[in-house]
Amino acid sequence: MIDKRIIKLLMDNRDFFKGKDKVYYLTSSIGKTGELYLKPFKEILDSSFKWGKIIYKGENYRKQIGKYGLELKEIRDSLENKLDNNVLRQEIDKFLLSHNTLSLTTGSSLGLRSTPIEYSFIKGNIYLFSEGGEKFAHLLLSDKVCISIYDNYTGFNKLNGMQIKGKAEILDKDAEEYLYILKEKGLSSDKISAFGIDMNIIKVIPEITEFLSSDLKKYNVSLKQILK
Fold it and tell me: What's the pTM?
């Protein structure tokens, strides 16, 4: 039974919905009755749904709900007022260069690990120095990582945060890139050896960057931008 208040809400705001892209997302645990519940919505809104799906309770029910929810998120994100990619790249680089600490999330069948760690942003990639730890167990099984970097919350008009999904690799200690990053940090293999430590460098190659920043309002675009 559909709540009459929902029907009234749609009726009272019918003009508001006209001409707008709409989506329905319905879950049903009673047989194949989803279409019956959907019928009054289609009648009120003139069947003008651009996207929609009915998910019935059964095998993989929760997985289907989650999967379609992510599909809808992709659609929503694609409709955002976008910033030019070159300008967005500059804003992202500026943010990354103005910070030095992130949270690195690694995961595998063994579990999850979130590690606060210092980073360097060099030529579009992120480099992390680490002697070891649980994250390496996960990196051996999966190169997928997620990074978050953010400012302290001070109000809705000063939001600044970033989430990066990417792939990680542990650089070979004899590789030219390993030696180059050491040099960029004012280090060398000899200095590392003198410390008596085994220093690893994790390289993260960004694939998807989600940037939420109040500073982007100066461009008259959505405050949340995605760069792939």
Answer: 0.83
